[in-house]
Specification:
Blueprint lengths: L5 E4 L8 H15 L2 H4 L4 H20 L5 H15 L9 H10 L10 H9 L3 E6 L3 H11 L7 E4 H4 L6 H11 L6 E5 L2 H10 L3 E5 L11 E3 L5 H4 L1
Parallel strand pairs: 1-2, 1-4, 2-3, 4-5, 5-6
Amino acid sequence: MKNIKHVFFDLDHTLWDHETNARSVLRDLYKEFNLNTRTDVDVEGFLSTYKSVNDKLWDDYNHGRIERDYLRDQRFALVLKACGATEVSDSIPLSDYFLFHCPRQGKLMDGTDMILNYLSQKYKMSVITNGFEDVQKVKLETSGLGKFFVGLFTSESIGRKKPDPAIFNHAMEQVGVQPHEAVMIGDNPKADIEGALGAGITPIFYDPLGAVKSVCQWQISHLSELMKIL
């Protein structure tokens, strides 16, 4: 791939292993708050319910149907209710626990350190994410990933969410590159891939399970495959 000057990455599910990190904290949360006595589900049922509720809330947030505060404040109330709890008014401490501990987990997607060390010798790199700014900053700092990136561009700080081309255009303007000089690597076919294409950026779709068909030319199942492309 020629003339590339800047590599943009998504963060969650692409570099930072959100699934593993979240599940670890949720297991601890289940025990810490004695949810075995407050709900009708075991820990696996709690994890499954959380994922279902959380995925729906993030979809609503990304489509502008709810605001950040609703997602953060109501998420565990909705989870508890779905798990059969009769009292959900004290769900904020659960939210606080999760929001403090989850971004401080350090599990990365396989090959992350290796590929970032490799790419940082050749390109400048930044993160473009729909995640909340305060949370994403903690992830980058505590995981050690921050040293690789010259920029963190969040939908919260910019006021536009992927796949809106505006967030990509803002990032390119800030780092001083044109669309043909950049690539975007991410796991979400719509937010990352369609968003990058809409901004004229070459996308690389990362799908570890190989389960999703992407519209872009470049598709990888392991981050090490980027060494053959970039």
